Amino acid sequence: MEQRILGKTGRSVSTVGLGTWQLGADWGSVTEEDAFAVLEASVNGGVNFFDTADVYGDGRSEQFIGRFLRANPELDITVATKMGRRVDQVPENYTLENFREWTDRSRRNLQQDTLDLVQLHCPPTSVYSSDEVYDALDTLVSEGVIRNYGVSVERTDEALEAIKRGNTASVQIILNAFRLKPLDEVLPAAKEAGVGIIARVPLASGLLSGKYTPDTEFPENDHRNYNRDGSAFDVGETFSGVDFATGVKAAQELSGLVPDGVSTAQAALAWVIAQDGVTSVIPGARSASQAAANAEAGGMQDLGTGFAHNVRDIYDRYFREAIHPRW
């Protein structure tokens, strides 16, 4: 699998990483055995980049990764975690004292003395422009608690603000065939500044697998059930904020345009990887077979201008009016 340098971390990471939200919670139940199978299948497929967060399963995802890496010390895996969602979402909570507490907990969970990459986890918008916040993050780097820091954002304006900061190593942002706005300004700005781009929610919470129908149901404890109205967290994290029925229709149309021998999900991942400025895409997986199929997308060639044109056409017809102004 191709590898690219992750921004200012200087680390070489696979173009397909692994998002591990599913291994913690909010997607139904995942056993430890299943979690380890997903991690192993990803590594066997060439993945060397895991993304997690301290709130995924209240630390369960981090703990799985920590135990997996401890059991496989020969692996050279870059682990990115996120912090900030364990408290009320007010700017006053983004302090050095809390950062120390949160990173110490993640270090215990991941069984790491120094965290490879810590990202602010979609904090209030004003946090991205706070000098004190970046000073605190720089302090953690100087003390050896973390090697690098970045941000995870909901909106493009938040990404652009963080990119201005000289020590921001990476930006994690929702980017997929149903969310094209980051292509306009964020990716060019990040490339110019040497900031890595981690593309999350690349399959629009599974919509871009092309397997859903309007009658598809999800478990009660799955965010695709309980967060469709954004009552638990930003609605853009669930199906990229698109209406489910509309998303199913658009995904079915896109499926009909995918080249032979490639799944709709793989085509969607390959499209993201082909965008200039993207470092790594981090689909999640709930099974080893799903993880292996995702990893295969990292070895696929650009699907061509025709497919890219179709992606933009579908976005323009189904989503641009509702999605582009919001995020």
UniProtKB/TrEMBL annotation:
CDD domains named in the record: AKR_AKR11C1
Top class in the EC scheme: oxidoreductase
EC number: 1.1.1.-
Domain NADP-dependent oxidoreductase residue range list: 16-298
Taxonomic superkingdom: Bacteria
Molecular-function GO terms, alphabetical: oxidoreductase activity
Pfam families recorded: Aldo_ket_red
Keywords on record: Oxidoreductase
PANTHER family for the chain: D-THREO-ALDOSE 1-DEHYDROGENASE, NADP-DEPENDENT OXIDOREDUCTASE DOMAIN-CONTAINING PROTEIN
Protein known as: Aldo/keto reductase
